[in-house]
Amino acid sequence: MRVIQTKDYEEMSKQAFNVIFNVINKNENAVINTTTGASYDDVFNLLVESINNNKLSIKNAIVMNLDEYIADRDKSFTVYTYMQEKFYSRIKTQPKLVELLDGSVSDLQSEIIRYNEVLKKFPRDLQILGLGVNGHLGANEPGTSFNSRLFCADSEESTIESTIRYHHLSRKEAPTKMFTLGLADIMEAKEILLTASGERKAKAVKAALEGPINVNCPASILRAHPNVTFIIDYAAASLLEKDYHNPPVLKP
């Protein structure tokens, strides 16, 4: 695992953007599976700017998503809404194909079957992840088997609280279930990008990097993957005992 420490969120976002830029730039038909949320707000801004200024072409790219809440698609907190507002509505050139999970369907199992076919058809060049305060990846909460595959998960209270905070929801409005790629699905990507920012993530970062590799911290499994870039700011790295001095990621 390549660990890069940055001084702050802004620099973390630039480094994460460079990873994504390089993958798309070197793969003519790049398949990108992304997450959403605060960790990637600025990354999407940088992607929009780069695409609209003709510095990055995504016309041959395939873009998918890691997860989706079980809710009507037009709710303010859904992955669908995030991707439309933060990315697709803002770029002048669209990807060749966009594949999103649909959490509004009545038959959840049929949607899982459909999206599994999408995953099989388009092997991922890059899997983009955020890190939950309890070490979760997507909706793979602590205790989830490392062999998990795309499923409908119940969110832990800490995850629900993060959703409430980020989307300014009431407890009653907050979703409690979501589709998510399983940990085994995540590990099948050729390359993985993970970011974490702020003191709230420090315990999870320490568990992911320096704790035992077990289901108590789902993110710890990433240490078994051959090509992971983990970008953290100084606040998120504040509890680490080891020093990590990997060089920054440069655009080609």
From TrEMBL:
Domain Glucosamine/galactosamine-6-phosphate isomerase: where?
A: 11-225
**Is the Hydrolase keyword given for this protein?**
yes
Q: Mind telling me which SUPFAM superfamilies this protein's record contains?
A: NagB/RpiA/CoA transferase-like (SSF100950)
**Alphabetized UniProt keyword annotations:** Carbohydrate metabolism, Hydrolase
Identify the Gene3D superfamilies for this entry.
Answer: 3.40.50.1360
Q: Which InterPro entries match?
A: Glc/Gal-6P_isomerase, Glucosamine6P_isomerase, NagB/RpiA_transferase-like
Does the UniProt entry include the keyword Hydrolase? Answer: yes
Name assigned to this protein: Glucosamine-6-phosphate deaminase
Pfam families xref list: Glucosamine_iso
